[in-house]
Amino acid sequence: MLKSNGRGIWTAIISANAERDPKIFKPFWPKDQGFNHTRSSTEYFRMLMATGAEQAATNPAYGIFSDLLPGTLAGHGVPRARTIATFSGNNNAWIVICVSNETSADTTFLISRNVDLGKQVSCTSKVTFVRSPIIQPRNRVSWITCGGDCFDARPEDVTAARLFPDTNATYDVMYP
């Protein structure tokens, strides 16, 4: 279920990017929208889900994410939000990696929230797993790449090198 939802998030972003005129509007990838590790994944998703008055206040081009709903961002041990107004970090099962339109297709874009990578990661970073009252233990880690590939593995099989295969790059992580 979590992996399927992650793929749905990726599909919504790819579809929205395709509908925009690249000469006029920036793509919806985090770095292209001015996000980095100092901002949260929740802020990023709220921007994507902005509707009605929020659209008019920010940018009228943001009204194209009608399929991205707060409940889609929930997951194992992470409760669903019923509305965008009630959506918070407690309802977000995903960590966003700050990528841009130029990021390679095999780079991780979304990873399930039971992983703690630190603010900036590379393939040599240590991967640890989160156990908290909000995030219930999960025996699988899910991630989606910029190219849309979906993966699911046991925590003991996940390494930073597997998540981030490019050894010469550092990636910003946006926590919930």
**SSE order in H/E notation?**
HHHEEEEEEEHE
| Spatial ordering of strands, largest sheet | 4-8-1-2-6-7
Helix content: 10-25%
Number of helices: 4
> Structural class, from helix and strand content?
alpha+beta
Rg from alpha-carbon coordinates? 15 Å
End-to-end separation: 19 Å
- How confident overall, as mean pLDDT? 83
Number of strands: 8
Biggest sheet, open or closed, and with what strands and sense? 6 strands, antiparallel
In total, the number of domains comes to: 1
Outline the low-pLDDT stretches: none
Strand content: 15-25%
Shape: globular
How would you describe this structure in keywords?
two-stranded antiparallel sheet; 4 helices; alpha+beta
Architecture blueprint of SSEs:
Blueprint: H1 2-19, H2 41-49, H3 53-58, E1 94-97, E2 108-112, E3 115-116, E4 120-121, E5 128-129, E6 141-145, E7 150-153, H4 160-163, E8 171-174
Antiparallel strand pairs: 1-2, 1-8, 2-6, 3-5, 4-8, 6-7
Please explain how this structure is put together.
The protein is of the alpha+beta class. The chain has one domain (2-174). It is built from 4 helices and 8 strands; from the N terminus they run H-H-H-E-E-E-E-E-E-E-H-E. The chain has a 6-stranded antiparallel beta sheet, covered by helices on one side. A hairpin with a 4-residue loop joins strand 6 (141-145) and strand 7 (150-153). The radius of gyration is 15 Å and the shape is globular. The protein starts with a helix and ends with a strand.
